[in-house]
Specification:
The complex is a heterodimer of chains A (66) and B (256). With 66 residues, chain A is mainly beta. A five-stranded mixed β-sheet of chain A has the order 2-1-5-3-4, with no helix packed on it. The longest helix of chain A is centred in the N-terminal third of the chain and has 7 residues. The termini of chain A are far apart. The mean pLDDT of chain B is 95. In chain B, 36% of the residues lie in helices and 16% in strands. Chain B has one domain: TIM Barrel (Alpha-Beta Barrel), CATH 3.20.20.70. Chain B has eight helices and ten strands. In chain B, the strands form three sheets. A five-stranded parallel β-sheet of chain B has the order 5-4-3-10-9. In chain B, strands 6-7-8 form a three-stranded parallel β-sheet. Chain B has a two-stranded antiparallel sheet with strand order 1-2. In chain B, helix 1 links the parallel strand 3 and strand 4. Classes of the chains: A mainly beta (66), B alpha/beta (256). At the A-B interface, strand 3 and strand 5 of A face strand 4 and helix 2 of B.
Chain lengths: 66, 256
């Protein structure tokens, strides 16, 4: 399946949950926030959300800002 | 104790610090420490998937500082609301510095989109601190929808020009029912002191600390400026006059 991750197309193998994807990317789930098809996810839901072809994901983190 | 109270939460420091543009996370942490601040702003951005980078949050002790995520980068209310929700989901308390700046040249905040976003976020339970132009009418409207502060700009973000909007900020302060935080454009401790002397409840500084070769020293200087201005405000400044009024007695001269 192909998902859009942070604005770029990405090929992934199903089945894959949001938690799986974060682990694959070696990101720290505690330090990111995720929007899945425009819905902001709670951290506790990462493992329960399966990704499907065409899904749009935004993964963000805090950076310095004023 | 002269505490700053925002949304029922008490703070000893009246200096809020932004974490952008520092040459290193170490210098940012030093500036935070030296400033005595208790509230620090942060931004949210897409993770660079190929290069996630050093997590700046490691350098900010959540027990010592309240993280105040901003909605910088938002060009309209919808984007600002998305960012605020993401920040909350990232584990922050539901506090947000609301900024909607569609114009990339002056980064001036869009008043209509800011008000729209504020209404939505207040309803969703956020403590909203909106960054605004120094518009007293807008400040009132925002307070009416339930924002926790208003944050009028002294000058455009990052310009270091000082309190160029002083007359309007004075009106905002006069009419405010929530704390007034002068944000943006403060380039020197004297600028911060002036805002505080005018009766601002707090100031937010970032660029002035980040662009100097000595962020720690500058942060300590701003801390003093803020404290001096606050104390002068509480003491009560003398009225400005057109004509001189002698400080020494006008009798007993060596003449007549």
């Amino acid at each position: 399946m192909i998902i859009t991750l942070n604005g770029k197309a990405r090929q992934c193998d199903a089945p894959l949950t949001v938690a799986d994807l974060i682990a694959t990317l070696q990101l720290d789930a505690d330090r990111v926030a995720v929007e899945h098809n425009r819905i902001v996810l709670l951290k506790g839901d990462f493992a329960a959300i399966p990704l499907r072809d065409g899904d749009v994901l935004e993964i963000v983190q805090f950076v310095g800002g004023g | 104790m002269d505490e700053l109270i925002i949304a029922g939460r008490k703070f000893k420091s009246r200096l809020l610090v932004g974490t952008g543009k520092f040459a290193s996370n170490e210098l940012m942490a030093l500036a935070m420490e030296q400033s005595g601040c208790e509230i620090v702003t942060v931004a949210l951005r897409r993770v660079d998937i190929d290069n996630p980078g050093d997590a700046m949050l490691k350098h900010i002790d959540p027990k010592k500082y309240l993280l105040l995520p901003n909605t910088s980068g938002a060009r309209d209310a919808e984007e600002a609301v998305r960012l605020a929700r993401l920040a909350r989901a990232a584990g922050c308390e539901p506090w947000v510095k609301l900024e909607v700046t569609p114009d990339p040249y002056y980064l001036l905040p869009d008043p209509i989109e800011t008000l729209k976003a504020a209404e939505i976020l207040v309803k969703e339970g956020f403590t909203v601190l909106p960054y605004i132009n120094a518009d007293p009418v807008l400040a009132k409207r925002l307070q009416e929808v339930g924002t926790a502060t208003v944050m009028p700009l002294g000058a455009p973000i990052g310009t270091n020009k000082g309190v160029r909007t002083a007359d309007n900020i004075a009106i905002i302060i006069e009419q405010a029912i929530v704390p007034v935080v002068v944000d943006a454009g403060l380039g020197a401790p004297s600028h911060a002191a002036l805002a505080m002397e005018m009766g601002a409840d707090a100031v937010l500084v970032n660029t002035a600390l980040a662009v100097t070769p000595n962020p720690g020293k500058m942060a300590a200087a701003f801390k003093k400026g803020v404290e001096a201005g606050r104390e002068a405000f509480l003491a009560g400044l003398g009225e400005q006059r057109q004509k001189a009024e002698a400080s020494s007695p006008l009798t007993g001269f060596l003449r007549d």
